[in-house]
Here is the input.
Amino acid sequence: NSRTSRAPTRWASSALLRLGALAALNAVVALALAPVTTVLATVNPPAYAVVASMTMMLPMLAALLVPRFGSAIIVAFCTGIFLMITPLGAIAIVALSVPALMMELVLLLGRLVQGRSRPAAEAAKTDVPWTTWLLACAAGGTAIAAMSLLVLAPGAATPALVVLLFCIRVLTYATLGALMRRLRSQLRSAGLV
Here is the structure.
């Protein structure tokens, strides 16, 4: 039946509730980190890159718990709305949503490739491969690293610092992605999702 092989066009209310809860929790995490990141941004940019990346943990988890295009973007965007009260202001929306979008695009591409190599029913039941997941996380890290270049003070942006920050962002995002995938596995094992 062609109706069952298509992806649903409407979001289930349980999925939206899950995404809303993740966005609210992510906002709490980000607000708790805000005083630290505000200081680290000027004092120690590499440490800032690590700590600030933690705000992408729950959008990553959203992409795993609700494996539909847009899940991570919804959580990131809603978190950014909550974070408009921080010194970042509206930039928080962009700083969270663009990496989430990059992740989602890589995951979508991975799902399309996986769907072509497997029957539709089987592909829908399985996760994207680890390599695709880590590439998606690295794409998010690359996006935020590129955006970070725009806010670095021109005198401080030495080639060594730029390369270091790029590597830190990509590796931190990939590490957080691996941790979120492990957390999702443990939540499944416990019967919570």
